[in-house]
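Let's study my pick:
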Amino acid sequence: DRLCYVRQGSSSYEANDNEIRNLYHKGNRLPYEQRASANQNLTFLALADYFKKANVQFDEGKYQTLGLKDLNGFFTNVGLWLSDQCTAETRAGFFLGNTKASESDGIHTFSGCVIEQFCKIRDLLSNRFDFKKKIEPNTLSSEGCINEVSDYPERAISEALINLFAHRDYSFENALATVTSFSDRLEFISLGGLPQGVTKEMMLLGISVPRNKTLADILMRLSGMERHGIGIPTIFVSYENFSFKPTLVCAHEYIKLDLPRLQQIPSDLTDRESAIVSYLKQNGASSRKQLQDFVNVSYGTVINTLRSLEAKKIVVKQGAGRETKYALIIS
């Protein structure tokens, strides 16, 4: 029943929930993730399993080292988010069109340990978009080659998911972070804008201060997240050979990242057209000579094939003269 008022000039007005939240954060310099959790009855069965599969030691003696407990022995908020009792939810939705008004193709809600949420959503997207190799939880920390995907760069999806959890403002109660698949893009929305002092330009340069540093460190340890916040540049580099790029929106209360969907091979293409599209999907923008050598045809034949793909709005010509390259575009 107690009210909070904000002074503005010669008058005062009743503060809204967001203003109260901001005042609370300003009055307590301790990061939200390091504050004592309201729930102190926590278990970590799922988290322990992921540490075990990643060959990283995990027991009660590590709770304070990892930030799950504070110096007074209380479980922290990051401990809550990594526990089996975590109530923060993430929703993954699939729509057949390019808006949420289009027909739904399935909506899934995940709760519990955020590492498990990450893995389940990553696995769901892996199966939906036909990664060459299904990513199991016990391979999350492994290094090696990047698996090709048919619709999206695999690395871009992983980095986008990690940023979704690492930058989320978990003080927004009952607010979902969302991953939404449309016919032309994947959309990632996390609640809470950029931390104070961080700008969109800094994120694009790889200069970033995660809102939840402790959580980001654990995500990095278990899933190979790049240090120092360079995940956003990695996402953009994944699209450098294509004519379309990701978009990043940093609003006051949310961050939205859109990954454009890579061109799918239409069923009515000739064998030669399909071969060129497959090559461009795997290798990115390529020269006429590279494509000619790949399909092993004459100059005139490959030019005619490329003109046909341009007319069908599947391929776009970039540059001029010797610098000319051909890249896929969104249908």
Observations:
- The first helix runs from residue 17 to 27.
- The longest strand covers residues 104-110.
- Confidence is low (pLDDT under 50) at residues 132-149.
